[in-house]
Amino acid sequence: MAVNRPARPSMPTSALRTAWTGLCRFLKDDSYERYLEEQARVAPDEPPLDRQAFTRKQILLTLGRGCCGR
Fold first, then answer.
1. Which of 31, 47, 49, 56 has the fewest CB atoms within 10 Å around its CB?
2. Three-state DSSP class for residue 21
3. Is residue 67 very low, low, confident or very high in pLDDT (cuts 50, 70, 90)?
4. Where are the domains of the chain?
5. Which SS3 state, helix, strand or coil, does residue 43 take?
6. What is the rounded distance in angstroms from the CA atom of residue 70 to the CA atom of residue 43?
7. Which letter does DSSP use for residue 69 in this model?
8. pLDDT for the residue numbered 49
């Protein structure tokens, strides 16, 4: 016998993105700006990644790491 469960309210993607952006601004996440400065200093001839590509790269770099950078 199937049990009818009430649907969980879902947070719209735009609301989640807005909340995340606000939290990053509150915590002063300036990693992309630091990346741009470093990129301009180290490899000025290479075009920098856009913010979305930078975020994807950061996620991929941290996926394999366990706790404490291991």
1. 47
2. helix
3. low
4. 30-65
5. coil
6. 28
7. G
8. 96
Which tokens in the block code for residue 28? 């002063």
Sign of CA dihedral 40, 46, 51, 55: negative
CA dist., res. 30 & res. 36, Å (int): 10
Q: Take residue 63 and report the two structure tokens written for it.
A: 């996926």
Distance CA 48, CA 54 (A): 9
The tens digit of pLDDT for each residue in 18-34 reads 888 788 778 877 889 88
Q: Give the SS3 label for residue 19.
A: helix
DSSP code for 68: G
What's the number of CA atoms in the CB half-sphere (13 Å) around residue 62?
A: 8
Q: Which two tokens stand for residue 59?
A: 């996620």
